[in-house]
Design goal:
six-stranded mixed β-barrel; mainly beta; 2 domains; 193 residues; single chain; Barwin-like endoglucanases
Length: 193
């Protein structure tokens, strides 16, 4: 089974409450362009993420709003911020590092919520069944890129009828494997035990 391996750059997910704190009462995220996962989009709004005096500006926000706010960065970003980067699945925020999010109208201090996203494959139930996989299985994926053929281990399979088949890696992983900005093809080479 071949699928697209996409590069997921640093970004923020926000609750509606936090959108309004950062951008003003009643503000809603402004659609810029769709993402590969159904219903998800890049918004036009940008924020600054901060850890004390360290900051990264013009960080993208992905919509729609979520039940919990979180910040996803690469290991390089977490080092630049001098913040501990915990490798976690999206939404698994307990015990992760604090981070401040600053917008034009205010700021939000998350007590936890800074993560390095665990590399993962989004699959529909049909695709998972075809591959003989289930939600939370761990696999290895080969990418055949120019001069940097790579096998990524510890890739978690995430299954939902709301997903489209695609693997996500962060910018550090993509740079290390010479994955182009627009992604490349990948395929599962083994299931890990």
């Amino acid at each position: 089974m071949d699928f697209i391996v996409e590069v997921s750059a640093r970004h923020v997910h926000l609750t509606q409450e936090h959108v309004e704190i950062l951008f003003g009462k009643g503000h809603e995220l402004t659609f810029d362009r769709p993402l590969s996962q159904p219903g998800q989009f890049l918004s036009k709004e940008k924020v600054t993420i901060k850890n004390g005096e360290r900051k990264i500006e013009r960080v993208s926000i992905l919509g729609p709003v979520r039940k919990a706010s979180q910040v996803e960065v690469s290991k390089t970003d977490s080092v630049a911020l001098r913040a501990e980067g915990f490798i976690r699945e999206s939404g698994d925020l307990a015990g992760t590092a604090p981070i401040e999010i600053e917008g034009p109208e205010g700021s939000v201090q998350l007590e936890e919520g800074l993560i390095i996203a665990k590399r993962h494959i989004h699959m529909t139930p049909e695709a998972a069944e075809e591959a003989g996989l289930k939600d939370k299985d761990i696999v290895s994926v080969a990418v055949n890129t120019e001069d940097r053929k790579t096998i990524f281990g510890d890739v978690v399979v995430r299954v939902s009828p709301s997903f489209a088949l695609a693997m996500h890696i962060d910018t550090d992983e993509a740079n290390g494997a010479n994955v182009p900005r627009n992604g490349c093809q990948g395929h599962i080479v083994c299931v890990e035990f």
